[in-house]
Amino acid sequence: MLSEEGSFDMMDDEDGDNGMQLLTDQEHLRASSSLFSSVVLQTLQKEEQAKLLAGVTEEPDDEEEDKEEDSKPSEASETKKGGKQPRRRSSLLKKTLIKTFTASEEKTVLKVLKQINQIEERQYKHGFRETNFTAGVMNCFTVAYFFGAYPEHFWIVYLVQSLYFIPYKFINMIRAKPLNEAFYYFDYCWMMNFNAIISLILLASPIPVPMAVRRFAYRGSFGIACGPLLGATLVLPFVAFVFHDVNTMTNVVIHALPPMLLYTIRWHADEIMQAWPSIFRLDDEGLQDPLYFPNNGNPFFFPGTGLGSIAGNAVFIYMMWFVPYTSWMLLVGMDLPRKNRETPPKYDTVFHTFWRTGSCTACGTLFWKRPVEVSQKQMEMDDYETRDFFVYMGVHALLVALSIPTLGFACNYSKYSHMTVMFLVLLAVVHRGSQRYTYYTTKMYSRMIRKEFLSSSSPDKK
């Protein structure tokens, strides 16, 4: 659920490949360093020229005056030939530029160049390269093409995407440093994708499956995919079209593709049955026109009741995840990343990742009036209060409960409302991706360079 967050930018972090891409990798690094040095030098030249034009100059040393007197025409001849004033501005400028970099400034420039190279190497290692970007864009085109032109075959696209991206990211989660992220898969969004795959297999199973089981799987999956998963796609900042980053694109796959899959099954059932008559049986009335709310359309009901409706089944499946996950976190998960335990921590959880980014401080201030210093200490040690976890799960349940009767109901209301909701949500995902690439190409280097120069020129370091 996190990325989260190597670059081949136009300049070069979760975190642009133009012009200089014709160079080899090592040449690219050297060229970037050389380009930066040139920009810095030109900037300093302009500053010194401005000083000279303002009359802020240093008089040349006597030795340099003698050398220039020997090598250049006299002031009188200069005045005669071109009417120039004998101020030797060019020689003064050269002398000033020679003295441009002091020892501390040179150290700072070298440090900045080193960090630029480190960022480039890290971004490249994380997949920021031409081939990955091209593959990511083409994959999105392929998914969009099949979704629009061949909705009857989109279930195959979903399976292929899931069977590639989900295991790929799981391997990266296991290898994640400093903490193993394998337990992220216990999170709701991941588990509901496994539920979607199982439900799809049940719908397409050649083995006789009772129609009641098919109905339950389809209705529950529709409410979950078009409610909580679609809502998470809208609000989670790490669900973004970052084409070169497989980890981030996996977030798009597990959140955005299930609603698209259920769209094709809900509104293109006839085409699916014509294309796959021996696999799918979607002509059942309970699948074609399902009841959304139980109790004659009443959206208010207790979890576990209202089975047989889309909302009732979705809430029941959520509770089947909520109770085991909460129990596991209280018994095991809360203690896993804690740094003050007897053995070094090895594993991370989604709750700890979310809480250490500042949610701990916000929760403590809003609900418990907890001092900020205490919250910061908890974040430093990854040791949080149980009541914070209850707030986290309470907000999670509230958002799920709100998404099912709003987004899910809109998607079930009509084909066009379903498409409109998905379009608006995907527009937000595209916008977040554009923000990420804008940061890569315009802000990442400037912030890093500004930070280095400010730290090196601060009074404490002088």
TrEMBL record:
It is a multi-pass membrane protein. One of its GO terms (biological process) is phosphatidylcholine biosynthetic process. The keyword Glycosyltransferase does not apply. The chain crosses the membrane at residues 131-148, 154-171, 183-204, 216-243, 310-330, 389-410, 416-434. The keyword Lipid biosynthesis applies. Its main location: membrane. Residues 1-26, 51-89 are annotated as: Disordered. One of its GO terms (molecular function) is acyltransferase activity. Keywords: Acyltransferase, Lipid biosynthesis, Lipid metabolism, Membrane, Phospholipid biosynthesis, Phospholipid metabolism, Transferase, Transmembrane, Transmembrane helix. Signal peptide: none annotated. GO terms for cellular component: membrane. Residues 69-81 have a biased composition (Basic and acidic residues). It is found in: Membrane. Residues 1-17, 58-68 have a biased composition (Acidic residues). Belongs to the GPC1 family. This is Glycerophosphocholine acyltransferase 1. It comes from Seminavis robusta.
